[in-house]
Amino acid sequence: MHFDLPPDHVEEPSSIPNFWVSALEDIDQFFHQNVRRGTVETLGTSAGGRPIRAISYGQARKGQGTTTFSGSLGYGDVRAYLGPDHDKKVYLALGAVHGGEFEGVVGIVNLVSILETGSDLRGRPYPGIVEAAAAVDRLILIPVVNVDGRARLPMRMARFTDQDNSLHQYLNTGANLDGTNLGWPQCKEFIPLDFATIGFPGGYPNDAGVNLQHDDFFGKRQPETQALLDLCARERPDLILNMHTGAPPRNYYTRMHRPFLEPRLQETFEALYRAVHGGLTEAGLQGTRDMALETDVSAMPVGTYNLDTALNLHCGALAVLIEAPSHGFAGLDREGSVVVQTPDLILDAQLVCHCEALRFLGQTGGRSRWLPGR
User: Fold this and answer.
1) Is the CB of residue 50 less than 8 Å from the CB of residue 96?
2) Which end of the chain has fewer CB atoms within 10 angstroms, the N or the C?
3) pLDDT digits (tens, 9 = 90+) for 148-186
4) What are the C-alpha distances in Å from 266 to residues 179, 257, 303, 310?
5) What is the model's pLDDT at position 372?
6) CA 315, 318, 321, 322 torsion: positive or negative?
């Protein structure tokens, strides 16, 4: 499925950092050349016929539980679902559920580099991530979930457009026949999106026109969604990070959203939020160094029903969405001053999120210890 994009819309920066690995072919080449400790697996095939790749580390859970996840909640003990090795700690990270959001892809690829070599693709060692990962039994990383949407954008990195996010919107949420942007959240009004009625679908939907973050989870699911559900049924992860690009234009820093999930998991979510945002604050990657301010989760509203909800209700995982700033445009801080998030800063924040989430999982013990039962 081919779309003619305006040449200036796909123009890349004159210099792209070597750590910015985001194109499908470059990711596959990276896996082939560098993954030795982990295992590369094809989880399934997209609506457009493209392979969905994952890399896993550690030993998976062995054996099955005696009931469904829902049944375990009714019984009062989630361990009946998780099985005999319920105390294993399993971490899953997703990138590019929206194919035009490159930041999470780059973060996961660099996380793989750290797990393989101890250093990211800039050559920077990350002993904290190595230590945190060692305390977790199983890691599964999917750099690009929506491979169709990613393949639709023929670039590794978008050019920077100051505070104008219209190019970012065009590449992600698409454009009408007259060239005007579909915009957000208007792009969610029609799922599946009829490609014949628009000028460009952007990277949000797969080749069937479905925004995977808002699939028909209880109906006719997309193959990408089914692959995720099958993976989660097999692996039964405790914690899922769903990495997106969409930090708020004011206070333009990496932000974790409160998911719509089991009410009893909200307390665990708040502890995770404080851990991740605390790590970002300590690293100087939030608007201030005020730890109390930057880790305050009290005003964070509950999100809407989406993929994270479906994953939680499918396998019991605490599934959270993290929004990164874009490399393509600037935002504002709380006081209204311009904030430019460089690729280096964005990658720093991605790796802090993974490090703190892995550390949180290792220290708190996962689902069977968060809510052990009766």
Assistant:
1) no
2) C
3) 999 999 999 999 999 999 999 999 999 999 999 999 999
4) 42, 12, 12, 16
5) 61
6) negative
Query: pTM for the complete prediction?
Result: 0.97
374 pLDDT above the threshold of 70: no
| pLDDT tens-digit map of 313-324 | 999 999 999 999
Full DSSP string of 287-340: S-S-HHHHT--TT--B--SSHHHHHHHHH--EEEEEEEPPSS--EE-TTS-EE-
> Which residues does residue 322 pair with via DSSP β-bridges, in sequence order?
243, 256
Helix (H, G, I), strand (E, B) or coil at 250: strand
Place of tokens 């703190």: 356
**Whole-angstrom distance, CA of residue 111 vs CA of residue 113:** 5
Q: Is 113 helix (H, G, I), strand (E, B) or coil?
A: helix
If 0-12 CB within 10 Å is exposed, 13-18 middle and 19+ buried, where does residue 142 land?
buried
Q: Give the model's pLDDT for residue 373.
A: 59
Whether 285 contacts 329, CB under 8 Å: no
Closest CA to 56 of 36, 78, 31, 38: 38
Amino acid at 104: G
DSSP-assigned beta bridge partners for residue 52? 44
